[in-house]
Amino acid sequence: MFPTVSHFLEYLFGVNIPLPFNTFGVFVALAFVAGYWAMSKELQRKEALSLIFPIKKKTVIGEPASVMEIGTNAFFGFLVGYKLVYGLMNYNALINDAQTVILSSEGNLLGGLVAAGIFGYLAYSDKQKAKLPTPKTVEVSIRPHQLLSSIVIWAAVWGFFGAKLFDNLENWDSFVKDPVGGLLSFSGLTFYGGLICGGAAVIYIARKNGIKPIHMLDVGGPGMMLAYGVGRIGCHLSGDGDWGIVNLNPKPFSWLPDWMWAYTYPNNVAQEGLPMANCVGRFCFELPQPVYPTPLYEVFMALVLFGILWAIRKYIKTPGVIFGIYLIMAGVERVLIESIRVNSKYHIGNLAFTQAELISTILILVGLGLIFYANNRKKNAVV
Fold first, then answer.
1. Domain end call among 139, 161, 194
2. N or C: which terminus of the chain has fewer CB atoms within 10 Å of its end residue's CB?
3. How far apart are CA 353 and CA 344, in angstroms?
4. pLDDT greater than 90 at residue 185
5. Cα 93 vs. chain centroid, distance in angstroms?
6. Are the CB atoms for 289 and 248 separated by under 8 Å?
7. CA–CA separation, 132 vs 198, rounded Å?
8. Which family does it belong to (predicted)?
């Protein structure tokens, strides 16, 4: 396993390059890039079909930088300099536990003040270059795909919040023992929490900018499926604990690599299992028994499902149907994988189910309902 990017580079090139980057975090970032690409393409396609339109906004040009703009940039610069300089001066600590260094109150005051001055000056000088003797108000046209950067940022912030919230609800016992650590930790993220909260934020921003929610949902379906597949690569490579149940069954095919059927996740970032012999460092644990590598299975399934959604999206004309299909696919995929995946279970009487199974079932029903509603609405519109 590759808990950090340094482990991965050492495996590929045999050279240890100490970098403070977590493999899982890098693939989360790549997942956003992949989702951004797919959603941007879809927004441009829908605009070309006149399904969504540019919006007109009035803006003032030629104004000098306001105190608020300079102050905001200076504050952001202070945070960057405060933590960055401290991290560089304590590089070994940053490499060994970047999360603790980043989330701690420790920092370099001088570095923060210098960066604050630089960022504040850049905000001031940038506005000075475009300053006019008399500022004027102009109307600008903003195309939908140009809004995507802010949409993705909102999705990331609220998606992270939702993913942490649902994960802590799913692992309530460990959350009660360490609520601060549970909320601030970068690990332990539940996809459905991110989907629900991040999706709500996307719909809000889209609606605010004149994009009909039904079209924004269709835009997001394929992109979210692709992002999910890319993100799961990080889960598998880092060994973040999203693996399956113990698998001692013989391989169904002799040609199938062992690691694709049953894997012990050595050097996993979750630090679960037994200590490994002759291993030095934090990530020296390996599961005592092999388990199903469920993140890997989800990578394959998500990428195949993305390919299907991407292929059929141009042929489905009814708004809302693509997102309905996405919900059904995502729900069925997760229900199938839950049967061999480690997860906390809820109990109601004799019925036992996981949080993911409950939400997946709801998604399937909502997807079916959305498809029915969309098609029925189209029929009534035609009549």
1. 139
2. C
3. 8
4. no
5. 26
6. yes
7. 39
8. Belongs to the Lgt family.
89-142 pLDDT, tens per residue?
A: 999 888 887 877 887 889 999 999 999 999 999 999 998 988 888 888 888 888
Give the number of domains in the chain.
2
What's the rounded Cα separation, in Å, for the pair 77 and 84?
A: 10
DSSP structural state of residue 60: E
Residue 117 contacts by C-beta under 8 Å, 6 or more apart in sequence?
74, 77
Nearest to 7 by CA among 162, 176, 325, 239: 239
DSSP 8-state symbol, 235: H
The answer to whether the beta carbons of residues 369 and 377 sit under 8 Å apart is no
User: Any idea which residue has 């049967």 for tokens?
Assistant: 339
Mean of pLDDT values over 232-261 = 92
The model's pLDDT over 275-288, given as tens digits with 9 standing for 90+, comes to: 998 888 888 999 99
Containing domain of residue 130, as a range?
60-139
Residue where a domain stops, chosen among 139, 162, 189:
139
Q: Does 225 share its domain with 148?
A: yes
The answer on 307 and 192 residing in a single domain is yes
Give the span between the Cα atoms of 279 and 215, in whole angstroms: 52
> Residue 383: what pLDDT?
37
Residues 135 and 258 in one domain: no
* Interacting residues of 63 by C-beta distance below 8 A, sequence separation 6+: 127, 131, 135
Integer distance in angstroms from the first to the last C-alpha of the chain?
59
